[in-house]
Specification:
3-stranded antiparallel beta sheet, 12% helix, mainly beta, 4-stranded antiparallel beta sheet, Pseudouridine synthase RsuA/RluA-like domain-containing protein, PsdUridine_synth_RluA-like_CS, 3 domains, Pseudouridine synthase, single chain
């Protein structure tokens, strides 16, 4: 007996039909069984203006700097069509509803990192207008948004050339053995949770992971040595790094 998992272009098969009987996705199939599945057509993503309170720390005619809270997604993607930072920005800047192509919808589900070219036209049909970098859903922090094409081009180039330095603060469980150092571990898909990335040593030997490196410094030891406040400076910008 073999457990078979079907997947087509990141679209999960919700129902399997075996010998005309409806079965659950966890059903064990055997050799010779005929499996039919129905896959719904992928619908283009839409980004509509939503009156979402934004913590704006700086704004002028060219750029907008927003303090993104934890658990807010930066832009619409499969599974997160509303309530994103982009929805709030569209309302704040009085921009119209935007729609993406199916190709862009698929690309948003991939591992796009800050140190790759992450450009989306301000005026084009994109669901991430002005976004030149992004933060993970669970990460809070400052995010720069371009308000015109000129600013967008310059910001995109700065991220591409690594002339912008990103600093993160984390609260750790336990205290690092050294007060400062550098961590270089490849990041790949978590084999137990496909929508999450994980540090998997040695995985890049098989071309399954991407190089990731970070430098850290312990700022303060807390809770009698049970925790620490740690500063991180990223050399790369991988998803979930």
């Amino acid at each position: 007996m073999e457990l078979v998992e079907l997947e087509f272009n990141q679209v999960s098969v919700l129902a399997l039909f075996l010998s005309m009987d409806k079965l659950s996705v966890s059903h064990n199939v055997k050799g010779g069984d005929m499996v039919n599945c129905t896959i719904s057509e992928l619908q283009p993503l839409r980004a509509e203006a939503e009156d979402i309170p934004l913590d704006i720390v700086y704004e002028d005619d060219n750029v907008l700097v927003v303090n993104k809270p934890a658990h807010m997604v930066v832009h619409p993607a499969p599974g997160n069509a509303t309530g994103t930072l982009v929805n709030g920005i569209l309302h704040h800047c009085s921009l119209p509803t935007l729609a993406s192509s199916n190709q862009e919808a698929f690309s948003d589900a991939e591992d796009i990192s800050d140190d790759e070219e992450f450009s989306s036209s301000i005026s084009g049909a994109s669901i991430r207008p002005g976004i030149v970098h992004r933060l993970d859903k669970g990460t809070s922090g400052l995010l720069v948004v371009a308000k015109d094409e000129h600013s967008h081009a310059h910001l995109s180039e700065q991220f591409k050339l690594h002339t912008i330095e990103r600093v993160y603060i984390s609260l750790t469980s336990g205290v690092p053995s050294q007060s400062s150092g550098r961590i270089e571990v490849p990041i790949s898909r978590d084999p137990n949770n496909r929508i999450r990335m994980a540090a998997i040593p040695g995985s890049n030997k098989h071309g399954q992971a991407r190089h990731a490196a970070s430098r850290y410094k312990v700022i303060e030891i807390l809770a009698g040595g049970g925790s620490a406040l740690v500063e991180w400076r990223l050399e790369t910008g991988r998803t979930h790094q």
